[in-house]
Design a protein that fits this description.
Two copies of one chain form a homodimer. The first copy, chain A, has about 475 residues and is an alpha/beta fold. The first copy, chain A, folds into two domains: about 280 residues, Rossmann fold (3-Layer(aba) Sandwich), CATH 3.40.50.450; about 140 residues, Rossmann fold (3-Layer(aba) Sandwich), CATH 3.40.50.460. Chain A is built from 13 helices and 16 strands. In chain A, strands 3, 4, 5, 6, 7, 8, 9, 10, 13 and 14 form a ten-stranded mixed β-sheet that branches. Chains A and B meet through helix 1, strand 8 and helix 8 of A and helix 1, strand 8 and helix 8 of B. Chains A, B: This is Phosphofructokinase domain-containing protein. Chains A, B: GO terms for molecular function: 6-phosphofructokinase activity; diphosphate-fructose-6-phosphate 1-phosphotransferase activity; metal ion binding. Chains A, B: It comes from Cynara cardunculus var. scolymus. Chains A, B: InterPro entries: ATP_PFK (IPR022953), Phosphofructokinase_dom (IPR000023), PKF_sf (IPR035966).
């Protein structure tokens, strides 16, 4: 058999010829249509036979003794890396489930597409079940069998509506039993949980549960969140962050150009992303690096102000006082903006499209090799896609414990903006200049073709040491 | 001399080699940079010698007798059309002023670029003055001499910050005298007013004033407003409408996909564009045609609801009542969105870029031929740019009168959404289907290259009879 093409677009399935019929809407915009057949490159390790190689054994992000007690079957297991090999696993047919968990992030559909194509390519005869409406779909046994026709309309498309998402958790003993029953009923070899920190913690608990009961169902996580706070050395970014930041930055850039075009309005350029009620300010920092506002408040540095409206009020009060003592004579009109939901479901950028596809493809490889309790990990992301690395990181290695109601609960430690990290240091070195001189940048709308289409984001490139 | 290239990019000036130094920010995003040298096609009439031919004499949109009294020098003058000719006007050097008036709209910089390039190409030795901060710049004599270096960084860029805009009007006899003084001081052959209906009314009053005093300064208007309510048969659309609608529709599309991905939120998809306090609903209608929401309220058909939050409250009240009688058991959470300022200063779409460039080029030709009191009119917009027609429409022909404080005031009649027009009829024929079945379309971000980059908008194509 010839090695599969590096440009995968549904493996050997003629997806390009499938009609867009199964999505709720049968009508697509020109841009949506143009994305359907966007070719997705794959890391070159998938072009040849490969094996999954174990790395050194792992510990935990904090309190390893407690994590070891909470995950007796999984704690300490090694990470995994895909490496070129003489021969490949023959790849028997697998039964795999996939679930979208929590808030939407651009690219989720491509994780599923990547898994599907991997199974079609490498484990012929496999079945992929999509659990509907998040983890509740696992507990209730609500699923759809994914087919090429079903998946095709969602390739490179935003949203989570292929199988929908939900915020339920598998927590109680009864709920774990329900998940076990579903896994048994469908004879699942594996389950992929696409979610944020909480969902991946849940995935790890489920992996531990299945392993402790000697059940064959393996569980693999995938790093999803536009907030960018689920990351570590092996998982350089969570998917969706790139696209969402670009969407917000486009709007911020437009509003800044608007403000510069007239002396009448002073737009409040405080970027407040309260979408998920999250604490980390990666989106704010990335948008600042993309657009250079005069003032940016990073929650990790200063207690973040509650609302943009409050900031405007404070400025109004200050200017009113100056007016009364004759230090200010102009009119001030604040204009607040909140950018939130618009960024969660945008068409994924080329970076998120490729990254998600590789995450899904990698998740398939990890399951095929019998791995469980790992999070799909694609690295070397500043290089061309062909040079990306693929593997898995033990979910337990990302964990710490929190004391809740007198009990230790495992949690994946949120990655906050590091004040001594490269992105914040870049920002800090520039902010005085940006404050005093208008250095506004307008990133413009996400482009899918042309020379600018494949650039990722400052946060990632600075953290990887590629951008200075 | 060889005919000028059809792809104009600064005429014979090597603009591509100029550094971006004069804009306040010297740093551009990749997309902004990529737009600087975007080649702009021109209507083919500019490729050869041409002459300006008069059409039939004109009347007014309403109350022609009153308009004739208000504009004794200009009323009834013919429209003008550029036609191929054996020889061209030799093109002596001109002194021209340009002003941006009112709210920003994507493409304003390209109108100025088009005027500048026309003068460089056809009237060598000309000077173009940019009045700063809107009409106040004319009255106060605040201007900048526009040079290739000054203009280059603004080519195909959003915003009005090249010379900034303002909302002052030239109204009182003293103000008209100030404008006259500035025109005399700069020895102006012409003035181009880039603005909406009020600004073009003002331009016409100024043209009448100059003409009635036998001053040489001619005044030409250009149709600017994202609201799309400044249009007529000869002026098929105002610039900025195409880009702004695309920016709003992208966001609306994203929010609709978001809503479809989870059962938790029911996003309020009422599109409310209160930006300019305008009455016409062209933006709402165009966005509906682009995205297919379940419910769209068109102000020309139903008294438009005041805020999106009020609609959510009404739905909440209704569902609460249903809950109490056992007809509804789910949770409802409305989510309101307001899209406004983000659309005014976006990078102009390819359509708006080319349209504005042609409007500016045409304004230059009208001034050169001695015309005054016309609005630059570029037609046949559904065809490739080469086939666009170029000319001018008498501003008096767009006018009606309003009685204010016992006096007749001339006003350009706002073009409202026509309930028997093709765009509304298309919407009306589809809305039942869209209401009951989710036919959401996500237009995605504006693309500047590739097969979808040059598509304009439904409203324009439906009104031109090109789209069914």
């Amino acid at each position: 058999m010839a090695p599969p093409s590096l440009v995968a677009n549904g493996g050997d399935i003629a997806v390009g010829k499938l009609p867009v019929t199964s999505r709720v809407s049968s009508v697509y915009s020109e841009v949506q249509n143009s994305r359907l057949d966007h070719p997705l490159a794959l890391p070159s390790v998938f072009a040849k036979p490969f094996k999954v190689v174990d790395g050194p054994s792992s510990s935990a992000a904090g309190n390893p003794d407690e994590i070891a007690k909470l995950f007796p079957s999984l704690f300490g297991q090694p990470s995994a890396v895909l490496e070129a090999s003489e021969t490949s696993d023959p790849g028997s047919a697998l039964k795999i489930g996939v679930v979208l968990s929590g808030g939407q992030a651009p690219g989720g559909h491509n994780v599923i597409s990547g898994m599907f194509d991997y199974l079609q390519e490498r484990c012929k005869g496999s079945t992929l079940y999509g659990f509907k409406g998040g983890p509740a779909g696992i507990m209730k046994g609500k699923y759809v069998v994914l087919t090429p026709e079903f998946i095709y309309p969602y390739r490179n498309q935003g949203g989570f509506d292929m199988i929908c998402s939900g915020r339920d958790k598998i927590e109680t003993p009864e709920q774990f039993k329900q998940a076990e029953d579903t896994a048994a009923k469908l004879d699942l070899d594996g389950l992929v949980v696409i979610g944020g920190d909480d969902s991946n913690t849940n995935a790890c608990l489920l992996a531990e549960y299945f392993r402790s009961k000697n059940l064959k169902t393996r569980v693999i996580g995938c790093p999803k969140t536009i907030d960018g706070d689920l990351k570590c050395k092996e998982v350089p970014t969570s998917f969706g962050f790139d696209t969402a930041c670009k969407i917000y930055a486009e709007q911020i850039g437009n509003v800044m150009i608007d403000a510069r075009s007239t002396g009448k309005y002073y737009h409040c350029k405080l970027i407040v992303v309260r979408l998920m009620g999250r604490a980390a300010s990666h989106i704010t920092l990335e948008c600042a690096l993309q657009t250079h506002p005069n003032i940016t408040l990073i929650g990790e540095e200063v207690a973040k102000i509650e609302t943009e409206k409050m900031l405007i009020q404070m400025v109004e009060t200050e200017l009113e006082q100056r007016k009364q003592v004759g230090q200010y004579s102009r009119q001030f009109k604040g204009q607040s903006h909140f950018f939130g939901y618009e960024g969660r479901c945008g068409l994924p950028s080329n970076f998120d499209s490729s990254y998600c596809y590789a995450l899904g493809y990698g998740a398939g490889a990890l399951l095929q090799s019998g791995k469980t309790g790992l999070i799909s990990s694609v690295g070397n992301l500043a290089a061309p896609v062909a040079e990306w690395t693929v593997g898995g990181t033990p979910l337990t290695s990302l964990m710490d414990v929190e004391r809740r109601h007198g009990k230790f609960k495992p949690v994946i430690k949120k990655a906050m903006v590091e004040l001594d990290g490269a992105p914040f240091k870049k920002f800090a070195s520039k902010r005085e200049e940006w404050a005093l001189q208008n250095r506004y940048i307008s990133p413009g709308p996400i482009q899918f073709t042309g020379p600018v289409a494949d650039i990722s984001n400052h946060t990632l490139l600075l953290e990887l040491g590629v951008e200075a």
